[in-house]
Amino acid sequence: MGSRTSRPGTSRGTPDTAAEPWWRKHGRLLYLGVGIPVIGAVLTALALNGLGLGGESEPAAPAATGSPSASPPSAPFTVSARQDGDDGGCTALEDRISSPRDRAEIVTGGDVAGVVRRHRGARAGELATALTIEGGTQPLTITSIDIEPEQPRPAPPFAGTLLCEASAGGEPKIQLYADLDSTRPVFLTGKGSADRYFDEHVVTLAPGEQVNLSATFVAVKGSREFRLVVRYVRNGKEGAVSVAAPSGSRYAVTGYAAEYGAVYSGSPNGGFRLEDGSRPCRWSPAAPC
Prior knowledge:
The chain is α+β, with helices and mostly antiparallel strands.
């Protein structure tokens, strides 16, 4: 009466002496051995980033597409490109236009831009591009705008078809200049200069500030397709943003060929007229005419 009974094999206040399975003990030790360094690494990284010593680079934003060209929403600033001085000059195609439909588009002044895109044309002599950069919510510094050629060396000039329009005249102000005939083209301070623009200059953007740049890409000896990448520093971290080409086209320029399969010049009715000769004498001062 009044006594307590215990479960068989156990006594009050005495721990269970049954052996712990080996896999449970080693699993717990493995968990602790791995978990402690991981937690330590995370805490260390957070502390370094809090002090601004993380040393990371901002991820590169993808290239934008569409018309007009613009930076993706994730970029810390917006940059758009448009063709500058498009009231004249020449465009060259690699092959001679043979399709009746394409010839009709050219002669009647129809979708000439579509013909140029299908045949991957390039501006002849020089490509003038206007760049507009607008700051985002935080200040930053543009340290360079890099030219990244698609080929290591220039290819021969396009010699298929040449489409030329009369210019309204006037010399556009050149802020940046690049020689695409060089192996590693960079922006220079002006035509004929050897001074690299971004060796001596940077572009500082305040939040919401807008900066306009005019870039001229020149080719005399060959043809080149390339990309443009804007590099910047924000809060001590480096980043890069690719600049989409104007209106879904591409960045490409070609020197004038000595002779073409066909030469068309702009006519008053808005179309193009097939020239009798095959040399670009009226447009290229270097043409052997």
